[in-house]
Amino acid sequence: MIRLKNVSKIYGSGAQAIEALRHIDLEVPQGSIHGVIGLSGAGKSTLIRCVNLLERPTSGSVQVDGQELTRLSGPALNQARHQIGMIFQHFNLLSSRTVYANIALPLELMGMGKAAIQERVKPLLELTGLSDKTGTYPAELSGGQKQRVAIARALASRPKVLLCDEATSALDPQTTGSILELLKDINERLGLTILLITHEMEVVKSICHRVGLISDGMLVEEAEVGEFFTSP
Ligand code: ADP
Ligand code: ADP
């Protein structure tokens, strides 16, 4: 579902150049939960942002569901991005919009009508346990609730892939657990492919099928989760 081939990313140029990703090969099969773990500055954020071209790789190939994204730009890239949802450490909700209006936003931007939007949003509110919060503003929500809104918003365009950028790093352990349960549920019920980056071992252990270790811009190790943590 996600295939990165020989992806490199260099920020800046000349003496200031930073090689954030070096020759990354990554394959995430449909329906799996794949984690990439690494220290701060290792390249995790850059890697996940290259998957939906929030960062454009300096070289290499990025395919999602068989489509080469690096050849796309403008409206064609926006169209392709409907297949790729993303959630962030700090939720990135719009504070001036209610829970409902945050979730509806991507659908409004796609030009969908009010009735169709309502039909999409309602089951997402149920799935994420937010049915009684539709008129609430983000400032009145807990961190876990905010991330649930962000998850519902990410799912609104019915993506095939969900990218999670340190999605639980701002949450306490108990809330982290409940968000991870929700992601697992979404993976199982919707067959959604999930790629997540984290610096937390526990996150990887509790929901990932496979895990890769990134260090200094290189994927240095990759294995099934059980194997990864028992290897000497
Ligand atoms: P991580 O997510 O693992 O903390 P990042 O992908 O954010 O790692 O960063 C990898 C390297 O690239 C770091 O050295 C970081 O300072 C650098 N970097 C990240 N984004 C930029 C940018 N927009 N411009 C210049 N350097 C960047
Ligand atoms: P995150 O919480 O997503 O890891 P960061 O605080 O690492 O975010 O980075 C925030 C933004 O700043 C990102 O868009 C990242 O690409 C950019 N960035 C990170 N490191 C650098 C850097 N050394 N120079 C310029 N921009 C950077």
TrEMBL record:
UniProt keyword terms in alphabetical order: Amino-acid transport, ATP-binding, Cell membrane, Membrane, Nucleotide-binding, Translocase, Transport
Membrane topology of the entry: Peripheral membrane protein
Predominant place of localization: membrane
GO CC list: plasma membrane
Domain ABC transporter: 2-232
Molecular function per GO: ATP binding; ATP hydrolysis activity
Compartment(s) of residence: Cell inner membrane
GO biological process: amino acid transport
UniProt keyword Ligase present: no
Functional summary from the UniProt entry: Part of the ABC transporter FtsEX involved in cellular division. Important for assembly or stability of the septal ring.
Family: Belongs to the ABC transporter superfamily.
Name of this protein: Cell division ATP-binding protein FtsE
